[in-house]
Specification:
The structure holds 2 protein chains of 2 kinds. By secondary structure, chain A is mainly alpha-helical. Chain A has 9 helices and no strands. In chain A, helix 1 packs across helix 5, helix 2 crosses helix 4 and helix 7 crosses helix 8. Chain A has 2 domains: 91 residues, no CATH class; 74 residues, Orthogonal Bundle (Arc Repressor Mutant, subunit A), CATH 1.10.10.10. Chain A is globular. By secondary structure, chain B is α+β, with helices and mostly antiparallel strands. Chain B is 26% helix and 26% strand. In chain B, the strands form 4 sheets. In chain B, strands 8, 9, 10, 11, 12, 13 and 14 form a 7-stranded antiparallel beta sheet that branches. In chain B, a hairpin with a 3-residue loop joins strand 11 and strand 12. Chain B starts with a helix and ends with a strand. The C terminus of chain B is likely disordered. Classes of the chains: A mainly alpha, B alpha+beta. The interface between A and B is large, with 59 and 40 residues.
Chain lengths: 168, 288
């Protein structure tokens, strides 16, 4: 795939990239914007990125970092709004309530846990693959998974406890 | 498929993605055009400031600027290096620093970014020298002014004479004044100081190989952990820092990165095996 250039990478991962970022940010439009930005960066650095073991993993990692930056900026904006006055009115989201609650629950996780949940349970990576994707140790992935699932359950999200054991 | 996977798949949405490779390509091309335009602007700025510098070199120095507003800030989207010209830009893009140094042909220099001050500048021995620094807001001490200059006027200069005059020499790198104070001299970028800290050359950061860092500036003192992640450097303050407003654990560079969407964590990136602070375009080897 990487021999074919950045276009092929873009076509191969954009759907999953946007989906993962939608979970990471809680917003599909934001996800599309960040996904494009991640792909732009991969494109601009293609001479280096194409030589990496996994350009896809690099792009996802950049995307997760962008999502983290976006979340921090959004938090700063919310703080600024609070300083100025009442909380800004949120736009209605056409998504169903369940979808919205899942997005909110996942987006509410700490950065590492959120990335692990998305990588493992949405993108379908195993522990080793998730560790490679996120650039951390497998033990970190396992611990983050356990904490993330516990946190998701605390938000009312139904997660099967078996997933903690059987998830690849 | 587990229940959680099913939920996540639904929550991720299955709407058609609104872009494709051609969209990304166009975005890349637009960005490259903007970068080329920014370089062109910077080159023009060099020529303009260079003309002023030559005028001063011929004896046109009329002393420090009395009215900061009259200087007319010169900004660019690129830091520019020339043999004797220093331009640091305002925080316009992710490629720029938070300092805005403007030079006029009367020998006046004004910084409108961060700490507001003006000074006299002149050419001396092929070097750009600033003196008679006058601050206008919280830069109430020479040390603060120097530190801000050291911290933000990246790429082009070097702290020369701590006792009096700032000497900015094109092509050299800055280091943090606090680090210089600690070891009694100006460390070189990338130098291990006290067998512990690696000095980063564009901001008052010091990064240790064990993954910790300190940030010391007049506005912010902070410790935390650093991590290389993908093409970015992630900084996690340990909650014990404090900025000028008393806000703890979160200040200065990090706050700017969060609140300014044009900065973000992209101000630090990895280029090959080099760590790059994009505000300066200076890269150093950072060994872990």
């Amino acid at each position: 795939m990487t021999d074919e250039g950045p276009e092929a990478l873009c076509d191969a991962i954009r759907d999953r990239l946007v989906g993962a970022l939608a979970l990471a940010t809680g917003s599909r439009p934001v996800a599309e914007e960040l996904a494009q930005e991640a792909l732009v960066r991969a494109w601009q650095r293609w001479s280096q990125v194409s030589r990496m073991d996994s350009p896809e993993a690099w792009t996802f990692r950049v995307a997760f970092n962008l999502a983290g930056s976006w979340r921090r900026r959004a938090a700063a904006e919310r703080r600024a709004h609070r300083r100025r006055g009442p909380e800004a009115v949120r736009h209605d989201d056409p998504d169903a309530a369940e979808v919205e609650s899942v997005r909110r629950a996942v987006a509410g996780l700490p950065d590492r846990q959120r990335a692990v949940v998305v990588a493992r349970f949405y993108l379908g990576h195993d522990v080793a693959g998730t560790a490679a994707l996120l650039g951390c140790a497998e033990g970190t992935v396992k611990a983050a998974t356990a904490h993330a699932l516990a946190n998701l359950r605390r938000t009312g999200l139904e997660t099967d406890p078996i997933e903690e054991v059987t998830a690849p | 498929m587990t229940p959680l996977t099913e939920m996540l798949t639904r929550a991720a949405g299955d709407d058609a993605v609104g872009f494709d490779a051609r969209t990304v390509r166009r975005r890349v091309e637009r960005r490259m055009r903007r970068q080329r335009a920014a370089i062109a602007v910077a080159v023009v700025a060099v020529l303009v400031v260079g003309a002023g510098a030559l005028a001063v070199a011929r004896g046109g120095d009329e002393g420090p600027v009395a009215d900061p507003a009259g200087v007319g800030p010169v900004t660019s989207e690129e830091l520019v290096v020339a043999p004797w010209v220093l331009i640091a830009s305002s925080g316009v893009t992710s490629e720029s620093s938070s300092v805005s140094l403007a030079f006029n042909d009367r020998g006046g220099l004004l910084n409108t970014g961060g700490c507001l001050y003006n000074a006299r500048w002149e050419l001396a021995g092929g070097r750009l020298r600033t003196s008679d620094v006058r601050s206008y807001d919280d830069c109430d001490s020479r040390g603060s002014v120097l530190d801000v200059v050291l911290a933000t006027s990246s790429t082009v200069g070097r702290f020369g004479d701590r006792a009096g005059t700032l000497e900015l020499r094109a092509g050299d790198a800055f280091v943090a004044l606090e680090r210089a104070d600690r070891i009694g001299r100006t460390p070189r970028p990338g130098e291990l100081v006290g067998e512990e800290w690696i000095i980063f050359d564009t901001a008052p950061f010091a990064f240790a190989p064990d993954g910790t860092y300190v940030l010391g500036s007049p506005q912010c003192r902070q410790r935390g952990e650093w991590e290389l992640d993908g093409d970015q450097m992630l900084l996690a303050p340990d909650g014990e820092g404090e900025d000028e407003t008393g806000q703890r654990g979160y200040c200065g560079f990090l706050r700017m990165a969060e609140e300014d969407p044009l900065h973000g964590t992209s101000t630090v990136r990895i280029d090959g095996d080099r760590l790059v602070l994009a505000t300066s375009q200076i890269a150093i080897q950072l060994q872990r």
